[in-house]
Write a structure and sequence with these properties.
Layout (H helix, E strand, L loop, with lengths): L5 E4 L2 E5 H8 L3 H10 L4 E4 L2 E5 L3 H7 L7
Antiparallel strand pairs: 1-2, 2-4, 3-4
Helix pairs in contact: 1-2
Length: 69
């Protein structure tokens, strides 16, 4: 991910959903569904949805699944 992929607004760091999906090897629709149905931390700016990079680690921790042993 290049530095120009990160958007800074009011001191917070954001990334476009499409960029995040590409970096993670996910389909954009998967990330859109996570945002809509699973509470992934996003904001809307115009017609774009941006992920809040500072809130993502907490979101991932909350949605972690522990494998059964």
């Amino acid at each position: 991910m290049a530095n120009d992929d990160i958007i800074e607004i009011a001191g917070k760091r954001f990334i476009r959903l499409s960029t995040f999906a590409e970096e993670m090897g996910l389909h954009i629709r998967t990330v859109q569904l996570w945002a809509k149905q699973q509470g992934m931390p996003v904001i809307r700016v115009g017609n774009q949805m941006l992920l809040d990079l500072d809130d993502l680690p907490e979101w991932f921790d909350h949605h972690k699944i522990n494998p059964e042993t």
